[in-house]
Amino acid sequence: MEKITYASLTSLGEDFHQAFDAALSYEQKKIGRAHPLYIRGQKKKAKAGVFLDTSPADTRIVVGEFQSAGREETRQAIEAARAAMADWPTFWH
User: Fold this and answer.
1) Dihedrals φ, ψ of 19, to 5°?
2) Torsion of CA 22, 66, 72, 86, to 10 degrees
3) Strand 33-35's sheet: what is its strand order?
4) Residue 34: which pLDDT band, with cuts at 50, 70 and 90?
């Protein structure tokens, strides 16, 4: 697909616009959700609580609520990632 610009929008066709509207509607339903931490595939709540992330274009729109991972959760996540990396070469060969 060509680069989409303001000038090219009218030439993209109705199929494109319908697909775009459907994708936008799907994503808008996910805005504002709460997101847990995942460490070793397990959901966790951070001891430090949560923070809200807002849209840079309109800070009244809350994109989501995210866990505020502290030092211990970060250490656990790094350890889990390092352990998982040992298996990565088997996926690439």
Assistant:
1) -65, -40
2) 0
3) 33-35, 62-67, 50-54
4) very high
Query: Which amino acid is it at 65?
Result: E
Residues 6+ apart with CB under 8 A from 69: 37, 46, 48, 77
Please give the structure tokens belonging to residue 15. Answer: 């199929």
Question: Coil, helix or strand for 48?
Answer: coil
Give the count of beta carbons closer than 10 Å to the beta carbon of residue 12: 14
Residue 13 predicted with pLDDT over 70? yes
Distance CA 74, CA 7 (A): 45
Helices (H), the chain: 14-28, 71-85, 88-92
CA–CA separation, 74 and 44 (whole Å): 12
Mean pLDDT rounded to a whole number for the chain? 87
pLDDT in tens, 39-64: 999 999 999 999 999 999 999 999 99
